[in-house]
Amino acid sequence: MALSNLDKNVTNRLFQMLSLNDNYEIDKIKNNYSGYGQLMLLAEQIANLQNKAKEIINNISINEHLHSLDITCKKVVGNYYYHYKINNKEVLSIISPEEWNRSDEEFIFLGKYLYNFDNIFYLQ
């Protein structure tokens, strides 16, 4: 795969990740397809790690929010909890939407979460 066939943004991101600014080094990479392939693999792995880090940070925020919500029962590891907005107030419940049997506008189902052994809610 020739470097010139790639999207300019992809190529620029690769060089930024590798902190390559010297034209001599870039020219050497452009001419070495094997080395370039290895660097592309590393760049993909770096991008995957960045995405995973963003996902973890987002999950931390969601979990802090879920832990701050009112709940009338004790949180038990391994149980499912349901996130609702009822009368403009967010709550967690062990009652599923089917068991509520409500369909009014003041009752909004926001998500189902598994409360795991690490005290983290995982969206199902």
Task: Describe the 3D structure.
The protein has 124 residues and is of the alpha+beta class. The protein has 2 domains: 3-61, no CATH class; 69-123, no CATH class. 47% of the residues lie in helices and 19% in strands. It has 4 helices and 4 strands. The protein has helices spanning 8-17, 23-30, 33-68, 97-100; strands at residues 80-86, 89-93, 107-115, 121-123. It has a 4-stranded antiparallel β-sheet with strand order 2-1-3-4, with helices on one face. A hairpin with a 2-residue loop joins β1 (80-86) and β2 (89-93). It is elongated, with a radius of gyration of 24 Å. The relative contact order is 0.11.
H-E order: HHHEEHEE
**Cα Rg:** 24 Å
Structural class: alpha+beta
Percentage beta strand: 15-25%
Biggest beta sheet summary: 4 strands, antiparallel
Number of continuous helical runs? 4
Mean pLDDT over the full residue set: 83
Find the count of extended strands (DSSP E, 2+ residues): 4
Distance between termini? 40 Å
Shape: elongated
Approximate helicity band: 40-55%
List the uncertain runs: none
- Please tell me the total number of domains: 2
